[in-house]
């Protein structure tokens, strides 16, 4: 069933508007193409609404937010809401600075998000309205493991109920949940943490999956998260002794390019709580 | 003869000033180095004229244009004109928003371009003064094929006559034309569309070819377009079963790095109309 | 001993704040992860001080400086000084424009840098208070070679004494020096000049080495420079006939990912003057 979500991306080739950081923007564009979507990046207030209106989905990522682009994020988000297009929020580093936390909260306040994807520290910050994050990675105190899985799932469900968004918390175990149903996903590879922006890439890809499956946002987000994890695994299997994090980065996008629905269904490992 | 254009780039190592988008800027820098040129990126109004004056060519790409960088594009373009340096325009997404269309038209109005390179939808937008473009890719309604090749060539020649620029329309068949002579180029590989920014990279490389061959802009632009197409082909031949769009991206730049004039002449496939 | 510097990075995983250019920012993030550190990029004046305060080091690179980010560089630099965190300056293109030269000098005036890393033309510009640089590469007139090594070392020592910074001048022979001791480093590979941003990457990595070895800044900077050179060599050895500058770029970061202290000590080639 998750495989069908992927195949819809390849069939519909959704155009996704990205307002994202300049660190990983190239990877976001390339993974959108690799998964079957089409990217456009644009962040000037004079054009973002028009660009959003051309697209089937919007991806907002606050990784290098600044005073010029924050109003563009709000305007594009509202436009997408008005048009009924799914919007994804990646609250990179929420909790690491007031600007990030407050911008993320303002976005949550003024824009309805179809999906919010972040690490557990970022999502906890959004839920609490404040927080502390060690840079752009999750605090070790916050790790999701088998022992606390049920309580974390309940927390995610509650946050989903409050925001109306499907919430994707990614980490060693990924949780993708609406207010009632949580996918606990076991795909992935720790070495993905050695490549910058695998989270940003996943958010961009999630926007394509949501855009191609607007009636099935939960399954679409779960499929995107599984797909990224599966590709992290197959890319890892391909590594030679001399390969390192840069070849791994390429192999992940290569794997996304080569993944099909059947392979996704075969390799997806998750349980539903 | 096209091969000579390439060899002049390797001989002269032209420094090219790029005011370009943040999505594909790294690829533009790397392809400039790979082809034998040297890149510098700079977009602050306080320095762009000085930077242009150090260079042998200028590449203006509106892919992520914004209120801060548009005046810099105009200032650098005028400076280059004053110094007699070739300027390339890549009107990314012209037709997709008023800001893009109007900025491209304003640039055409105030700056003389040696080369304008875009897809057919972007070029039609510039020629008509308005248009609609599906994001940053050409509309399927606009495709250049054998059936409409002569009429498209005439359109491109007319647009070249009006602007005084060599016009490069890239797609399944590429057309590079001044007001009298059109190169119809058959090199290239459809998979290049799966890598973000191959068009941006080509524009940057075209600036280097023009800078190294200022007396032969038409041949220089045709050579750059052929070279990119040939490298798309040789990179494709190198792909293994596990490779995808990310390895392909690397192999294209590798191929540019390894290409010489003789190989370009051997593999170039074009006719002149 | 240099190997110990590297191992401390892997042990302590220092978080490094980068205010850097948008051309090579992704490579900077990836090399920081590859060497064992952790990157965060942030340049808005509203948050840079908070972000710096989360980190163990700061890397300031003026490669695409602009009116919005220059105040952020100054604010973050002062914050880091107040907290006693090492700050690295990469004066990209100092000498190529008044804006670059003046910004670099202002930074030197208001911020204390633990390490300044640039090519010989950039460092000469900073030392003289003015200069001319051919874009972002060193002038050929300035090349460091065996014949002028002693006089260049004395120049670097003097500049170090004036600024209180360890100064790293990279080129065919690299010089890393404080006011008394100069490491002359022979590692490296000319083909590194075909990849954009190997200098930027080295500066980012140097910030991680300095952050993990705050009591041994000279040795830390020398270790980072050696490590980059060694990785340029091992990556070169790995190239196949079809590989070019893009595969080389990946192999360098792969090599950084795979390098350990013992291998660094084995392959480091330097003399102390």
Characterization of the model:
3 copies of one chain form a homotrimer. Chain A is of the alpha/beta class and 273 residues long. The first copy, chain A, has helices at residues 2-12, 25-35, 48-54, 70-83, 98-110, 120-128, 149-163, 198-212, 217-237, 245-258, 261-267; strands spanning 15-19, 38-41, 57-61, 87-90, 115-118, 166-169, 174-177, 182-185, 270-272. Chain A has a 9-stranded mixed β-sheet, sandwiched between helices. In chain A, strand 4, helix 5 (98-110) and strand 5 form a beta-alpha-beta unit. In chain A, helix 1 packs across helix 9 (217-237). The radius of gyration of chain A is 17 Å and the shape is globular. The two termini of chain A are 17 Å apart. The mean pLDDT of chain A is 96. Chains in contact: A-B, A-C, B-C. Chain A binds chain B through residues 15, 22, 25-26, 29-30, 33-34, 38-47, 50-51, 54-55, 68, 238, 249-258, and chain B through 21-24, 26-27, 63-68, 93, 96-100, 134-137, 193-197, 242-247, 249-250.
**How many helix segments of chain A?**
11
CA-atom Rg of chain A in angstroms: 17 Å
**Overall geometric form of chain A:** globular
Distance between the termini of chain A: 17 Å
Oligomeric category:
homotrimer
Task: Provide a concise account of the structure shown.
3 copies of one chain form a homotrimer. Chain A is of the alpha/beta class and 273 residues long. Chain A is built from 11 helices and 9 strands.
